[in-house]
Amino acid sequence: MAANKKILLLPGDGIGPEVMRQVGRVVEWFDRRRIATFDVTEGLCGGAAYDKHGTPLTDETLAEAQRSDAVLFGAVGGPKWDNLPFNLKPERGLLRLRKEMDLFANLRPAMVFDPLIGASTLKPEVIQGLDIMILRELTGGVYFGEPRGITTLPDGSRRGVDTQVYTTAEIQRVARVGFELARKRKNRVTSVEKANVMHTGVLWREEVQKLHDAEYKDVELADMYADNCAMQLVRNPRQFDVIVTDNLFGDLLSDCAAMLTGSLGMLPSASLGAADSSGRRKALYEPVHGSAPDIAGKDLANPLASLLSFAMMLRYSFDMAEEAKLVENAVQAALKSGVRTSDILQPGTARVSTTVMGDTILRELEKLA
Ligand code: IPM
Ligand code: MG
Fold it and tell me: What tens digit of pLDDT does each residue of 268-326 get?
């Protein structure tokens, strides 16, 4: 029998632990129903790791993540740690994981669940049936470029520097993932940059085009400036299939796309590395929402983005498409039954806690399995 699937849970800070608790319940359910068994370990990341170890990510936790088949991540950060030196901030823990595991391809699907159409601030006819994939480059660009830092100038004033930098290889490997994804979807890629003002944008556009012409002529490719893309996302989001873009633009555009779906609380993500010789990829799955310190610990958070991230893990790390569908259908059914956490509350629906949303998912899983 194949070895158990090894997953590392890193709940992190804020609402991270409470949404991850619901994922833990679904993992147990899979085990109990003998659908899949996982070897689960849990670790600290972000402010929680800082409080215990004085660093947002220990070398041991990083090594554990490298050894795992998949990492399930909650959220990091909060006002408690806002004044820490830059390199000790909770976010550095997550960024170090992404960088050291070389998770360059960040998949952020934005899908509108029918029962949630009314929760979006956009008109139903604009978002009905929306299904787009934002593919964000995750280990390069201004997030990691050197030089960076704040220096004091001779006159006593200060100067802050961040560097936006991309190479051919970095652009092409993420574009390749984009074209491959598009082939399994509506076969359309929109490559997004600011080639009108940035050299990295010019390079991005040229390298994506080159790869397209050499290997992916069958996929429809369009270029778009990032500012226009932000506008098009709220004007007519269904024109998009796969959007491939850099680290910073991807960060912004995915928050924007999230709200099309009604709430940031619904958006999952997968961060993938390159496939090794056996086809295995390092992977980390996390909700796109942050740690939401204002509601943390109150059992109010929406656990669905985390549960959908778990579904992405089943699909992308373990090739369990059917089981992934099962979780997604349970989410759909729970929404249809009319229960809502406060972020997606609408007239005529029932406001429930994080835990009760988890209960509902388990009940729906029982019905569907
Ligand atoms: C995200 C978040 C992170 C980012 C933060 C928490 C470092 O906003 O995953 O979108 O900026 O990448
Ligand atoms: Mg973000």
Answer: 999 999 999 988 899 999 999 999 999 999 999 999 999 999 999 999 999 999 999 99
Nearest-ligand number for the alpha carbon of 138 = 1
Residues with CB under 6 A from ligand 1: 77, 91, 94-95, 251, 288, 290
The dihedrals phi and psi of 214, each to the nearest 5 degrees, come to -80, -40
Summarize pLDDT for 34-85 with one digit per residue, the tens: 899 999 999 999 999 999 999 999 999 999 999 999 999 999 999 999 999 9
Closest residue by CA, ligand 1 atom 11 = 251
Three-class secondary structure of residue 327 per DSSP: helix
Give the closest residue to 8 by CA, choosing from 73, 98, 92, 103.
73
Report DSSP letters for 8-40, one per residue: EEEEESTTHHHHHHHHHHHHHHHHHTTS--EEE
Cα of 336 to ligand 1 centre, how many Å? 30
Residue 221 Cα distances to 120, 132, 169, 207, angstroms: 29, 15, 19, 12
d(CA 108, CA 308): 11
Give yes or no: 166 in active site.
no
Q: Give the number of whichever ligand sits closest to the CA of residue 76.
A: 1
**pLDDT exceeds cutoff 60 at 364:** yes
Active site residue 143: yes
Residue entry with tokens 């959908």: 308
Query: What is the residue with the minimal CA distance to atom 8 of ligand 1?
Result: 251
Best CA proximity match to 353, nearest among 22, 17, 10, 119: 22
Report the distance separating Cα 284 and Cα 103, nearest Å: 8
**Ligand 1 atom nearest to 76, measured from its CA:** 6
Q: What is the pTM of this model?
A: 0.95
- Spatial contact of 269 and 286, defined as CB atoms under 8 Å apart: yes
Q: Which residues contact 101 (CB under 8 A, 6 or more apart)?
A: 65, 66, 71, 273, 282, 284
